[in-house]
């Protein structure tokens, strides 16, 4: 089905149509200096295509959140953990909801990490959810920089990798990248090179004009025309737009950005008491405290004499400075709080960050003394507690080896590994896919099977099937294996005999 998107008016007065189906297969690159109308162009494209295709907007300035009022886009505030953003992105693809990822208020490194996590979640969605999605990234040079900047190498690699996946490998997964940048020279070449459609706006630097002319197949002498383009005017080229360079003017939009270009407004009349208004502090202002002049410098002889004197010994304190903490009482309080969390049936499907906040509140209610348990240690205790090993098995050498092996796994996989290891140590049937999915915080049985394949690739266990079609997990390092278990059995809840070890 061919869907023509009205982008405005082309040269000669004809309608400038964009083939949406072709755009989904060939991607789009928009370039223009600040104030050339890039955001207006993206807004026109999003508004016109909203009824036809799911959309995801990576919005660093919060300009596109107004789409939610008119077109029903869901605004996702990026002030969340990276793991939570990844899970939200997977659910966005599953339920085919158009969203705006609002990165406003974050510094550049936080924006790069949040965008990388969200785009990664959309890219890694299950094959059954590979529906077409128009992924619009404004100010793409922030997320795919051509050279390293002031951000850390890790954040730059994460963001650049996500943008490369979007533009290079996203087509087969239904992701169509539309990226906008102020300067082509600032954008990574391997990201820009994957676009087959181009809309070039006003630009002034020679290097950017030359690259724009090369991309449009124009003569270098024609590159000067990009300096003369008015706001909202672009030159289009590509299979979804035009086979020859085509000047066009972007049409009007129904929504507006929260931030607008500065407008000249007349100055107010100068008040008669302007001097008093400026130099007299208001009642809410705190008067600065005048510091006394510094004391005269101490002679060098006196400094040497002070250093040569023996330091007097401080008398021992009669009472300890800090209160003595009963470690047994603290450990009992922490274990009780974790046990209460694990007894909640919905806890398995909540993020670690949410559970950690609940844990801190429970510790305050119980008045657990000492510093709160760090997040990393809490995740470890939670993973061990979810395994539900009994006291007799926990005292054995096999369980101690299982705990050591799990320390090298990512935090979100330790609990799943310990669940299957506990079943092997205790000689219980192999957990079903539903049980493993619950331990991972998911409802997907396919994802649970992938976790077992990951453990097998790491050499931690061996998966085999007996003659009755039941699954057995053998652990070479533990010297034990699970009893045969039905992988398709329903989840009847994970026992939690022991909440902390």
TrEMBL record:
Keywords: ATP-binding, Nucleotide-binding. It holds the Pfam family DUF87. Residues 15-109 form the Helicase HerA central domain. InterPro entries: ATPase_Atu1862_pred, HerA-like, HerA_central, P-loop_NTPase. This is ATP-binding protein. Gene3D superfamilies: P-loop containing nucleotide triphosphate hydrolases (3.40.50.300). One of its GO terms (molecular function) is ATP binding. Residues 479-501 are annotated as: Disordered. Coiled coil: none annotated.
